[in-house]
Amino acid sequence: MTFREKTRWTALIVDLIIWAWYFSRVAEALPDGPADEMDFLWLAAGATVATIIIHVAAIVVFAARRPKEAGASPDERERQIEREAGNAAYTLLAIGLVNIIIGSYFGWTKFETVNAVLAVFVFAEISRYALEIFAYRRMAA
Amino acid sequence: MAKRLSNTIRALRFHAGEMTQAELGERIGVTRQTVAAIEQGKYSPTLETAFRIADIFGVRLDEAFRWSED
After folding, report:
1. What's the pLDDT score for residue B70?
2. Nearby residues of A122 by Cβ (< 8 Å), 6 or more positions away
3. What is the pTM assigned to this prediction?
4. Per the CB < 8 Å rule, is B34 touching A77?
5. What local confidence, expressed as pLDDT, does residue A125 receive?
6. Which of A28, A60, A128, B11 has its CA 20 to 30 A from that of A3?
7. pLDDT for residue A36
8. Which of A104, A27, A24 is nearest to A96 (CA)?
9. Backbone φ, ψ for residue B33 (5° rounding)
10. Is the distance from CB of B69 to CB of B40 less than 8 angstroms?
């Protein structure tokens, strides 16, 4: 498994765990909305920071074991995988945001709209990692 | 019947002093996994990479790669 594939696996698992936890809290607060929306701002910020810290820590650990591979630029196959996954994720992001725009016209609250946008971004990112991993596995020996 | 890209890279590596996939990858600027994917027909290299591979083994492009029916 290449360095890049390992980082994608880590990112996928970490994002699924952390954001599933966050959105379970959001779901609990619906449909009446939270007592204090600022609490969820801090929760989202905390989830984002935790995600970044764990991602970086994983990259450092993997890079320490394979420094040459970690320092190398992606090769043509890796660039193709990243490009195709990125294009698909961007499409999902665009579809999601259009749906949110429509939803906001039908009376969504600020809390619902903000979290829907966050959910779409997270979903697009998780989809990108999943698609990259699928491509790596499909081409693996 | 549909045509597909095939190659003789594994044989070429063997006859080149049993060059490993990692060594070939190092010389053409791709990972070992990419070389493996090319050999198994799971990834089609760019034209430049295909020429680099043929050049390393001292063969023509059509000796390293074939576009033919299964």
Report:
1. 64
2. A15, A19, A23
3. 0.88
4. yes
5. 96
6. B11
7. 80
8. A104
9. -65, -35
10. no
